[in-house]
């Protein structure tokens, strides 16, 4: 890896031309265990215990086949693709504060790592089974960091993930309490430790959106503001109050290119948070209803049907989309995009789709201000 005109790590937004990316792997994946931050259930089978331990070879092979298909499409577009190291996710985790019987997988690097400019930022993570998930990418991170002195690397403070970090009764809240609490944006994690998943972050050049969710709390947002504001970046917390189980912004609010955002009709922004976009002439376009209903999603998938929105931008005019989501493909084509459809349904079981399964390490372009008319109050 040689120094380039741009550093080998360079990505300021979600849409500039993609040059290098890490694509996840389903190798050695396990079912995510039940723990205070996650209570997985089987769709359409209430009361049936969720499986534990390793996933079947068939399920892993099907997911890996589709991930390999994504690699092939990216390479055909001139994108360099890297992969995580295989690891044994069946091994337990034991720390002074918690233990869990097995780990999860390395299908979704987007949850763990994010490139902000020339910096690699490792998220804290919010679930015990994913505490050490960064290890699958650590050798790659060292390669990028060693390749060029302009590359920065920050690991956010690791949380305790002790019992007191979570609201264990969250999963049993009745609907009335859930509606009341969601407007206070209180979910399964407390506010006393810094918690965030990288997939709750969306990059717009100088401006960074961070969703407050089940996987990112206000302390996590505050840490990101303190970390990024001294570099001249503006961090904006965003909220989607009709989402009862918010987790990761990339199935809810997806920037496609400067001035255009794909929005989720079931999850509007909190009143007032749209003003920064409207004041800067950004257009919101609603995603069509997904092809699959929630009951038709893979039985072990814990994500919503809005994985349909989880597309990957190769450039401001070209995107990769799940092949069965034809209504979304037509909408994107109507807005001037070339759409590359590929099968990806078998990856859904692993908690994500095309955007989740990638970490964009290098895109062309530099930091731009896409919100010149914005009132911003930094932390003091």
Automatic annotation (TrEMBL):
Matches recorded under InterPro entries: AmidinoTrfase
Protein name as catalogued: Glycine amidinotransferase
Active site: 197, 248, 356 (amidino-cysteine intermediate)
GO molecular function, one term: glycine amidinotransferase activity
GO biological processes: creatine biosynthetic process
Coiled coil: none
UniProt keyword list: Transferase
Chain intervals for the UniProt region annotation (Disordered): 29-55
Source organism of the structure: Streptomyces sp. R11
Similarity comment text for this entry: Belongs to the amidinotransferase family.
């Amino acid at each position: 890896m040689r120094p380039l005109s741009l550093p080998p790590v360079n990505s300021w937004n979600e849409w500039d031309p993609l040059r290098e990316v890490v694509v996840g792997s389903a190798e050695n994946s396990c079912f995510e265990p039940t723990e205070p931050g996650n209570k997985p259930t089987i769709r359409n089978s209430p009361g049936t215990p969720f499986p534990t331990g390793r996933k079947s070879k068939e399920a892993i092979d099907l997911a890996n086949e589709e991930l390999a298909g994504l690699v092939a499409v990216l390479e055909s577009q001139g994108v360099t693709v890297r992969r995580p190291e295989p690891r044994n996710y069946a091994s337990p985790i034991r720390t002074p504060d918690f233990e869990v019987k097995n780990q999860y997988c390395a299908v979704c690097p987007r949850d763990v790592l994010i490139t902000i400019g020339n910096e690699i930022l490792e998220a804290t993570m919010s679930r015990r089974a994913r505490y050490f998930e960064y290890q699958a990418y650590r050798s790659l991170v060292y390669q990028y960091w060693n390749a060029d002195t302009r590359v920065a690397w920050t690991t956010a403070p690791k949380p305790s993930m002790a019992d007191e970090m979570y609201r264990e009764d969250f999963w049993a809240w009745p609907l009335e309490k859930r509606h009341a609490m969601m407007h206070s944006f209180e979910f399964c994690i407390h506010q006393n430790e810094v918690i965030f998943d990288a997939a709750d972050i969306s990059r717009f050049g100088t401006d960074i959106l961070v969703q407050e969710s089940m996987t990112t709390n206000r302390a996590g947002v505050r840490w990101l503001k303190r970390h990024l504001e001294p570099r001249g970046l503006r961090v904006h917390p965003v909220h989607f109050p009709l989402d009862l189980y918010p987790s990761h912004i990339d199935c809810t609010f997806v920037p496609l290119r400067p001035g255009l955002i794909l929005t989720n009709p079931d999850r509007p922004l909190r009143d007032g948070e749209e003003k920064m976009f409207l004041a800067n002439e950004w257009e919101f376009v609603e995603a069509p209803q997904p092809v699959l209903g929630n009951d038709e999603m893979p039985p072990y998938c814990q994500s919503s049907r809005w994985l349909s929105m989880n597309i990957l931008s190769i450039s401001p005019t070209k995107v990769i989309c799940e092949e069965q989501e034809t209504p979304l493909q037509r909408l994107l084509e109507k807005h001037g995009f070339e759409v590359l459809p590929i099968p990806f349904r078998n990856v859904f079981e692993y908690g994500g789709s095309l955007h989740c399964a990638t970490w964009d390490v290098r895109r062309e372009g530099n930091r731009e201000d896409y919100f010149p008319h914005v009132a911003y109050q930094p932390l003091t």
